[in-house]
Every structure is written in structure tokens, then in C-alpha cells.
């Protein structure tokens, strides 16, 4: 409830008399003649305070700006939750069961309870929360439409009340996704006979708590994206104060980032999104690129780029450590299920891509003459040298751990080499995918984006199954397919370069 000054001298409209309406014409009544000296002095009008209902005012503004959009947004949210629940029931639960189902349940249970597995789990949760904080700098949970920011937020209303609806959407979504994820993992463990029924309750509660924590960290990161008087961690449990700290200019920037990312994704032009979300360089500004031969200069340029963007280096390191650990475990441990390699391939692929900014920059500027005199393939090879070397170091470390813990079969080393070749080829394909040449529909664009990642995941999963089965004949056939994918990626580099030059 808000109190505001009522305009001075304002009088209520006269009530209609019986037999007349408010709009009936009437003759003016005669004014009695009173001497001026006998007229009473009129009191000076003063402002009075009138109570206004903020909820009612916000409801009227919502109807004027969005019409029936609020009700439709709630219905769409409920439908999205229903589809997500069905997806977890139909696909998520069987996949989790397949991950934990193995012929040696006792050995797998001991490995999952080992200190290394617990440390990897904690690191994965920390990396997920860190990714949420990083995403909140560009797109937070509270992003109202631009008319609401321009017309409603400047009004003398409580900002926490004006932004509460969008925060509720994010908070309920985080709670639901966290609880559903915990329920799916706990049910998969129980159905695979690796845990009891109590595990389902524990994982559901833990998932719910992590969902709530992630949504509040997301909001806290959005508050910190704009300078303000209060940016402390105490805003995590003071949600109304956090909503009041959101600046209108910050909300405009986040709304613009949302439109930019959505437009770039639908048109297949990720360069626009990368340029819009690039932060100013604040690290390694005194470092300079030393002269040398073209190949070594390109490699040193990528090293300098990672020094100046430590966030990209750390995110790539975390993803590669996680993916390398899961893949090495899947290829070297007999108790590990084959589908574990499928799960580990995606973070390994994404971690390699986080280190391949130079490769993406070459693809963005494809067709322009090379100032160093190198060919397009030589330049691409130079840009994948650094991420390949870093990935080899990570995989080599995990192979050493596996060799120290138990035996290391030679087929596992061969399969890990093929996985590395496959990850390199997939990232080259992703960088030089070009622009879509079909009718831009969301489903087709999503499939077009996912082709490199799906190629890596599918072929890597086939390698894991054949390695576990000891089928070396078909393993050699799949290895030739992997090298064919690498040749395809090299041809994409040439084809896209020549197409732009033509």
C-alpha cells in the first residue's frame, strides 16, 4: 500500500439528484447577494494523503502493457514443467539406470564411494554453480520486457513488488529442475540396485536445495553485474533487497542480451552473440606477442589469448578434467558401464572448445587474406595445437592415475587416442559450420547446431562399446570412420574459405 499526496483543491464529482442524471442540462441557480464583509474566509487547501494499492496499479499496468500475456506465461510454464517431467520419466530414468547398471555392482559401488569419485562430484557441483554465476553477468533470472522497464519501474512503486513475478518464475523453475534431477538420479541408483529407497529421498532433497541455491546465486550475480551500494553475499537470503538493487540500466542490458542471443541462435550467426557478450580485457594487458615464424606466432597468439581470458581457460580446464576422468574410467575399468563414455564425451568436447577461441576467430574472418602468409589448413592446425596439447596433458594425467590404481589395457590407450582425434575433428566442424542454407525453423537450427557434438558423442560411444567387448575388427573399422570425420573437417575449412573468397 502506497500513500501519495492528493492534488490540492480536488473535489469529488457531485452526485446526481433524483430525477436528473449527471449530464442533464440545467439552468443556473440564482446566487444570493451577500455583502463582501460578511463572506467567510475560505480555508487554504492542503494536500491530503490517499492510499493506493500497489498490486492493483501493477495489475492495471500489466494489462495495459502485456494484455493476457501473464496468464499465458503461467500456462506455458506449467506446460514446460509437464514436458520436462515426462522427459525425465521416459528418457532420463532409463539413461541413469543404464549408466549405473553393470555386471559387477559391488565393484562399481565401491568406486562410486571412493574419495576420487566424491571429489569429482563436489567439483562438478561447484563448476555448475560457477557456470550459473557466470551466466548471471549476461542474462539474469529477472528480465522483464522493455516496456515494463521503461514505463513501470520509474513509477514510485516498490521495485521488489514490480519485479517479483519474474523472480518467482526463475525460483520455481530452479526448485522444480533441482528436485526432478535429484529424483531421477536417486531412482536410477535404486533401480540399478546400488542404493536403497532412502537414497531417492536424500537425492531429491539435495537436488531441491541445489536448485534453490543456484537460482539465488543467479540473482546475486545479476545484481553484481551493475555497480550498486549493496552487493554482499547476504543478498542470497534477502531476496526483496536483491530485487530492489536491480538497476533499470542493468535490466535493459540484460534484456538486450536476451534478444541478441535469441536472434543469433535462430539465424545461425553465433559471432554476433560472442561480440555482444565479450568483456573488456583486464588481464595480461602488458604481455606482448613476440615475433617469429608464422606457425609459432599463431600458437603464441592463442597462449596470449588464454592469458588474457582466464575465465575461458579455467572453464575449459574444469570441463576437460571432468570429461577426461569419466572417459578414462569408462575405458580402463571393467566395472564401468559403457554408457559412461557417452556422458564424459560432452564435457571433454566443450572443454576443448573453450580453449579454441583462435579457431573460432579464424572461422569468423574466413576468406580474408592471411597477413602471415599461411594457408587456411596450416592456420587451423596452428589454432588446434594449444587445446590439443592441454587435452593430452589432462588425459595423460588421468591415464597415469588409472595405471597406478590398476591395470591399463593397450586397447584403452588406442581408444583414448581415437577419442582425442574425434574431439579435434568435432571442434573444427563446429567452428567452420558456416551459415544454415535451409529454412530457419527452431528444430532444424537446433539439429544443425548439434551435428558436430552428436558426431563426437555417437562415434565415441561406439568406440567404448567395442573396446569393452574386445571386438577389434569392428574397432579398426570405426577408427577409419574417425579419420574420415577428421578429413571431412579439413575439407570444410577449405570449402568455407574458398566460398567466401569467391
UniProtKB/TrEMBL annotation:
<keyword id="KW-0472">Membrane</keyword>
<feature type="transmembrane region" description="Helical">
    <location>
        <begin position="197"/>
        <end position="219"/>
    </location>
</feature>
<feature type="transmembrane region" description="Helical">
    <location>
        <begin position="412"/>
        <end position="432"/>
    </location>
</feature>
<keyword id="KW-0812">Transmembrane</keyword>
<feature type="transmembrane region" description="Helical">
    <location>
        <begin position="169"/>
        <end position="191"/>
    </location>
</feature>
<feature type="transmembrane region" description="Helical">
    <location>
        <begin position="380"/>
        <end position="406"/>
    </location>
</feature>
<keyword id="KW-1133">Transmembrane helix</keyword>
<feature type="transmembrane region" description="Helical">
    <location>
        <begin position="79"/>
        <end position="100"/>
    </location>
</feature>
<feature type="transmembrane region" description="Helical">
    <location>
        <begin position="444"/>
        <end position="466"/>
    </location>
</feature>
<protein>
    <recommendedName>
        <fullName>ABC transporter permease</fullName>
    </recommendedName>
</protein>
<feature type="region of interest" description="Disordered">
    <location>
        <begin position="1"/>
        <end position="39"/>
    </location>
</feature>
<feature type="transmembrane region" description="Helical">
    <location>
        <begin position="472"/>
        <end position="491"/>
    </location>
</feature>
<feature type="transmembrane region" description="Helical">
    <location>
        <begin position="338"/>
        <end position="359"/>
    </location>
</feature>
<feature type="transmembrane region" description="Helical">
    <location>
        <begin position="311"/>
        <end position="332"/>
    </location>
</feature>
<feature type="transmembrane region" description="Helical">
    <location>
        <begin position="112"/>
        <end position="136"/>
    </location>
</feature>
Amino acid at each position: 500500500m502506497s500513500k501519495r499526496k492528493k492534488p490540492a483543491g480536488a473535489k469529488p464529482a457531485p452526485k446526481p439528484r433524483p430525477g436528473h442524471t449527471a449530464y442533464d442540462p440545467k439552468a443556473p441557480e440564482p446566487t444570493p447577494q451577500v455583502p463582501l464583509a460578511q463572506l467567510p474566509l475560505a480555508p487554504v487547501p492542503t494536500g491530503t494523503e490517499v492510499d493506493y494499492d500497489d498490486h492493483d496499479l501493477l495489475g492495471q499496468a500489466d494489462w495495459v502493457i502485456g494484455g493476457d500475456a501473464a496468464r499465458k506465461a503461467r500456462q506455458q510454464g506449467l506446460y514446460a514443467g509437464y514436458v520436462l517431467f515426462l522427459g525425465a520419466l521416459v528418457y532420463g530414468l532409463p539413461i541413469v539406470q543404464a549408466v549405473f547398471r553393470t555386471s559387477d555392482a559391488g565393484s562399481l559401488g565401491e568406486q562410486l564411494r571412493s574419495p576420487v569419485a566424491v571429489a569429482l562430484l563436489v567439483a562438478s557441483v561447484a563448476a555448475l554453480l560457477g557456470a550459473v554465476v557466470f551466466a548471471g553477468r549476461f542474462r539474469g533470472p529477472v528480465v522483464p520486457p522493455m516496456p515494463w522497464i521503461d514505463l513501470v519501474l520509474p513509477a514510485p512503486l516498490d521495485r521488489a513488488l514490480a519485479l517479483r513475478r519474474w523472480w518467482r518464475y526463475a525460483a520455481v523453475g530452479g526448485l522444480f529442475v533441482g528436485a526432478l534431477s535429484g529424483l531421477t538420479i536417486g531412482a536410477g541408483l535404486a533401480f540399478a540396485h546400488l542404493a536403497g529407497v532412502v537414497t531417492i529421498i536424500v537425492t531429491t532433497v539435495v537436488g531441491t536445495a541445489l536448485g534453490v541455491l543456484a537460482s539465488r546465486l543467479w540473482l546475486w550475480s545479476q545484481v553484481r553485474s551493475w555497480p550498486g551500494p549493496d552487493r554482499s553475499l547476504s543478498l542470497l537470503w534477502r531476496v526483496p533487497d536483491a530485487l530492489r538493487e536491480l538497476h533499470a540500466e542493468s535490466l535493459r542490458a540484460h534484456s538486450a542480451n536476451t534478444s541478441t542471443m535469441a536472434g543469433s541462435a535462430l539465424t545461425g550467426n553465433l559471432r554476433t552473440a560472442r561480440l555482444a557478450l565479450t568483456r573488456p580485457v583486464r588481464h595480461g594487458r602488458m604481455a606482448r606477442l613476440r615475433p617469429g615464424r608464422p606457425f609459432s606466432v599463431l600458437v603464441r597468439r592463442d597462449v596470449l589469448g588464454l592469458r588474457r581470458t582466464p575465465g575461458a581457460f579455467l572453464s575449459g580446464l574444469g570441463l576437460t578434467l571432468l570429461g577426461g576422468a569419466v572417459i578414462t574410467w569408462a575405458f580402463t575399468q571393467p566395472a564401468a558401464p559403457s554408457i559412461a563414455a557417452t556422458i564424459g564425451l560432452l564435457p571433454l568436447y566443450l572443454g576443448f572448445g573453450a580453449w579454441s577461441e583462435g579457431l573460432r576467430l579464424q572461422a569468423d574472418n574466413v576468406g580474408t587474406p592471411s597477413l602471415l602468409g599461411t594457408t587456411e589448413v596450416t592456420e587451423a592446425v596452428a589454432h588446434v595445437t594449444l587445446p590439443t596439447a592441454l587435452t593430452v596433458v589432462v588425459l595423460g594425467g588421468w591415464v597415469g592415475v588409472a595405471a597406478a590404481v590398476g591395470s591399463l589395457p593397450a586397447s584403452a590407450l588406442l581408444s583414448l587416442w581415437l577419442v582425442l582425434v574425434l574431439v579435434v575433428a568435432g571442434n573444427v566442424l563446429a567452428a567452420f559450420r558456416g551459415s544454415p542454407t535451409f529454412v530457419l525453423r527452431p528444430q532444424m537450427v537446433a539439429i544443425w547446431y548439434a551435428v558436430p557434438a552428436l558426431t563426437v558423442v555417437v562415434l565415441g560411444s561406439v568406440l567404448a562399446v567395442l573396446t569393452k567387448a574386445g571386438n577389434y575388427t569392428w574397432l579398426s573399422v570405426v577408427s577409419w570412420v574417425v579419420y574420415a570425420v577428421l578429413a571431412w573437417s579439413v575439407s570444410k575449412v577449405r570449402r568455407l574459405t574458398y566460398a567466401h573468397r569467391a
